[in-house]
Amino acid sequence: MNDTPSQSTSAPDPASPPRRGKFNFWRSFWLGSIPVSLVWVYYDFYVPSNHVTWAEDYASAQQQAVQSGKPIILFFTGTWCVPCRIMKRTVWADPQVEATVKAGFIPVMIDLDDPNAAETVSRYHVRSTPTTILIDPKGNIRERVEVGMGKNDFLKLLGKLDPDGIKVPIPSAG
């Protein structure tokens, strides 16, 4: 007959503690990193709509500026530019900035990747984004900033511009 002992599957001993899985550091790391990464991506790429009336392009902005006597804000950006998106969210969507820009400026957003904007990009020697340039209706540069900025810095920049006696309305902070 068969002299080998039969292997029986016995039920676990109820007195022994339940066996727990081994802690897996990398699994925990990735499971924790995914939500943090999603929040970070949302923060970097979410841009709320704003109510700034943007000029179609540089030529139309210049035409509007000549007719109104208002200075022009050239905002050079790119769809891939994360600091630009942050500035669009924290500066351009702010009601105080919107009111100030509407009251005293002709804004135009220029995408560096747009082939139709190449002449304007070359004319103002734009090499990085975000770049904000304030010009008079004749196209002369009055102020230039080649980094992203917050709301207060942006309003201070607008307040510096007073070409030919034009008073730039800056609402009080509050």
Helix content: 25-40%
Spatial gap, N to C terminus: 96 Å
Sheet with the most strands, sense and barrel status: 4 strands, mixed
Radius of gyration over C-alpha positions, nearest whole angstrom: 29 Å
> Architecture of the domain at 58-161, CATH level 2?
3-Layer(aba) Sandwich
Q: Low-confidence parts, pLDDT < 50 over ≥5 residues?
A: none
Give the overall silhouette. Answer: elongated
| Helix/strand order | HHEHHEHEEH
Strand runs, count: 4
Count of separate DSSP helical elements: 6
Q: Give the oligomeric state.
A: single chain
Q: What is the CATH topology assignment of the domain at 58-161?
A: Glutaredoxin
CATH class of the domain at 58-161 reads Alpha Beta
Q: Mean pLDDT score, rounded?
A: 83
For the biggest β-sheet, the strand order reads 2-1-3-4
What is the CATH H-level superfamily of the domain at 58-161? Answer: Glutaredoxin
Write structural notes for this entry:
The protein is of the alpha+beta class and 174 residues long. It has a domain at 58-161: 3-Layer(aba) Sandwich (Glutaredoxin). The protein contains 6 helices and 4 strands; from the N terminus they run ααβααβαββα. It has helices at 25-45, 58-68, 82-92, 95-104, 118-123, 151-160, and strands at residues 72-77, 106-111, 131-135, 141-145. The chain has a 4-stranded mixed sheet, with helices on both faces. It starts with 24 loop residues before the first helix and ends in a 14-residue tail after the last helix. The model has no long low-confidence stretch (mean pLDDT 83).
